[in-house]
Amino acid sequence: MGKTPTYKPLNHEFQKVEFKTNVPLTKEYARAKRIRSSARWQKVRASIINSQSGICGFCFKRPIEEVHHIEELHLYPDKAFKNDNLIGVCLICHGRIGARTARGEDVKAQIKEKRLKHQMEE
Which residues contact 89 (CB under 8 A, 6 or more apart)? Predict the structure, then answer.
């Protein structure tokens, strides 16, 4: 389902504001939603967080708040539970990853590079 339209006051009346998005509501997104709400996903998510000691795998500074699918879940549902396709990130880095993906950057390579650099610094 899409987001509910919001309403804002205008001259003491409410005007409907349409929610605009370039993301169509498709069966792929519905499948992704089902995966994210599954017990299996909750176990895999907890495993990723534990394997990274609760620290963001992109900046290596802040606590994990999201587990991100490097290969987008709605496009690659077969990789939904694969550890090498998942990274625990803080909200700031999750936003950065999303922006870089939207710009067409190779985020997968950037994540791999950051992981290698971090391992060398340890």
Answer: 56, 57, 58, 59, 64, 65, 66, 67, 68, 97
Residue 36 located in a structural domain: yes
Q: What backbone torsions phi and psi does residue 110 show, to the nearest 5 degrees?
A: -65, -40
6 in a structural domain: no
Question: 44 is written with which tokens?
Answer: 């895999």
Q: Give the total number of structural domains in the chain.
A: 1
User: What does the pLDDT profile of the chain (122 residues) look like in tens digits?
Assistant: 455 544 444 444 444 444 445 555 678 888 998 999 999 999 999 999 999 999 999 999 999 999 999 999 988 999 999 999 999 999 999 999 999 988 999 999 999 999 899 889 87
Contacts of 41 (CB under 8 A, 6+ apart): 35, 80, 81
| Structural domain containing residue 85 | 26-121
63 inside domain? yes
Asked if residue 17 belongs to a domain, the reply is no
pTM score, two decimals?
Answer: 0.74
Burial class (CB in 10 A: 0-12, 13-18, 19+), 118: middle
